[in-house]
Amino acid sequence: MLQSPELRIDDEATLREYLMGRLGGEAAESLESELLEDEDLFEKMRIIETELYDDFAAGRLSSTDEQAFLSRSRGQAARSRFVFATTLHGRAAATRIATFRPRAARLVLAAAAIAVVAIGLAFVSLRKTPVTVPPQTARTTEPATAAIPSPARAIALTITLGSSRSGAEKNILSIPDGTTNVELGVRLHAEDVYDTYEVDVRNVKGESIWQQSGLRAAAAADTRTIVAVVPADRMGAGTYEIAVSGTTGTAPAEDLGFQSLEVRREQ
Amino acid sequence: MTVDPFHRRSKDTWTLTAAAFERLLTLLHPERDKAAVEYERLRDRITGLLGWWGSPRAAELADETLDRVARKLDEGAEVRTGSLGAYVRGVARMVFYESSRQQQTDPLPPDLDLSVPVTDEEQSPALVCFDQCLAKLSAADRKNLLRYYDDAGERTMDARRKLADELGISTNVLRVRMHRLRDRLEQCVAGCRADG
User: Fold this and answer.
1) Which residues in chain B have their CB less than 8 angstroms from residue A37's CB?
2) Across the interface, do B185 and A88 touch by the CB < 8 Å criterion?
3) Distances (CA, A) of A35 to A20, A187, B48, B49, B87
4) Is A46 close to B142, i.e. CB distance below 8 A?
5) In A, which residues are within 8 Å of B193 by CB distance?
6) CA B47 – CA B83 distance, rounded (Å)
7) How far is A220 from chain B (nearest CA, A)?
8) Residue ranges per structural domain of chain B
9) CATH class of the region A97-266
């Protein structure tokens, strides 16, 4: 226990020790009294508490600190804070990978309204596969085309590339049992003209679970679309983020945007 | 039906009066409007303290604490200048002890244990709310927040310094600003999830 009379109660290490339950006796009492009077000190404590959740979620605490933290952070409120910290850091990490381009900021609000465009004309034309998909949900078990080795069973979905992952509407893909591939069409913005494209599928933690590069866009009906073929067994039920980048010549790849996708598995 | 003797007792024996409440507000600040703000801030701080003590009903107990402080003032208690914090802490501690005696001691269900990793099933609904709330922030705030909380290991501090430089503020100001922003976002997500 830290009970030094020279302890500075506004020292961050002291505040952290308090939150770990390692500040005892008069030092803790004195600090608690001060916390109730001093708004700035209270906010500082809140910040340190929040950073403890971040450190815990990122696995940055030592085993001793982790045990101390766990013993002090229990119940629904603590669990909710943990889930939030995990979500925030996962989103932030994903953003680093799919950095917005300047024009993206102007499209943020528009992106919220972006929904799944179910196998649009361009994609139908491109794939030459007659499919019907209801809005927001794509589902088909059409036979594979030339891109999919027979006897693979494929399910197709076309999404429109957004510039924000903040869209309130979620793209939903129901994958029936036995499906081998997901043909993921991504409708690009008109100005996104590059030699080749890369599609990166990430889980909720921001981890890449599958990538395909060297994709070329097909133009049809005033739109440009790329199609990636994702092995269905890589996409369990859950939420994913589809990030797309483009490359021309030897220039570095440029991030073009992303879209979220909820996958449901059907037995 | 579960009876909570703690609440029954406090409810049966005393209720907050307008006069008692006024005395408390006057103690917090001589101007009524500012006193009301101070009251809310003090309530938040008591709630935080009770949470750090491990109370699962921190907000409720903070209200009880303030009611009791008001009651004591109404009954003639004097709080010396500079000792309000210690006084309120003492009352809060008593309220917490009384509450703890009533608390059930059942073990926490597994899903409330922080040592259990966050599952996709748990995170998916949180993500929907997160994205909705994130969309309510300005584009600049959203961008800065996500940059700030992008953990890149040892590069994190450098990245935050760079962000602070770009915004023309110190890293400490950035830290406070981002925390406030995050707090707003977290409250929005909590509200969204509570609404189902």
Assistant:
1) 82, 84-85
2) yes
3) 16, 54, 9, 8, 12
4) no
5) 80
6) 19
7) 32
8) 5-102, 110-195
9) mainly beta
Q: Name the amino acid, one letter, at B158.
A: D
Digits of tens for pLDDT over chain A (267 positions)?
333 434 455 689 999 999 999 988 899 999 999 999 999 999 999 999 999 998 888 888 899 999 898 888 877 888 889 889 988 988 887 766 554 444 444 444 344 334 333 333 333 333 333 333 333 333 333 333 333 333 446 677 777 776 544 444 467 888 888 787 787 888 887 778 888 888 888 887 777 788 878 888 877 656 778 888 788 888 888 888 888 888 887 777 777 777 788 888 877
Give the Cα separation of A114 and A264 in Å (integer). 20
Is B84 close to A75, i.e. CB distance below 8 A?
no
What is B110-195's CATH topology? Arc Repressor Mutant, subunit A (1.10.10)
Start-to-end C-alpha separation, chain A: 56
Provide the terminal-to-terminal Cα distance of chain B, rounded to the nearest Å: 27
Dihedrals phi, psi of A163, to nearest 5 degrees? -115, 5
| Closest-CA residue to A227 (of A260, A199, A259) | A199
Domain residue ranges in chain A: 12-73, 97-266
* DSSP states of A201-247: EE-TTS-EEEEEEEE--EEETTEEEEEEEEEGGG--SEEEEEEEEEE
- Nearest CA among B2, B77, B55, B44 for reference residue A76: B55
User: To the nearest 10°, the Cα dihedral for A20, A23, A27, A32?
Assistant: 20
A-chain residues within 8 Å CB-CB of B152?
96
- What residues in B contact A204, CB-CB < 8 Å? 120, 123-124, 127
Chain B residues near residue A167 by CB distance under 8 angstroms: 131, 135
Whether A84 and B126 lie within 8 Å, measured CB to CB? yes
| Cα–Cα distance measured from residue A33 to residue A245, given in angstroms and rounded to the nearest whole number | 54
Nearest to A237, CA basis, from A180, A152, A178, A174: A174
Identify the H or E element spanning B102. Answer: helix B84-102
Task: Kindly determine whether residue B42 and residue A43, on different chains, have CB atoms separated by under 8 Å.
Answer: no
**Structure tokens belonging to residue B141:** 């705030």
Cβ separation A33–B41 shorter than 8 A: no
Give the integer Cα–Cα distance in Å for B50 and B66: 13
Question: What are the distances in angstroms from CA A105 to CA A163, B67, B162?
Answer: 8, 48, 20
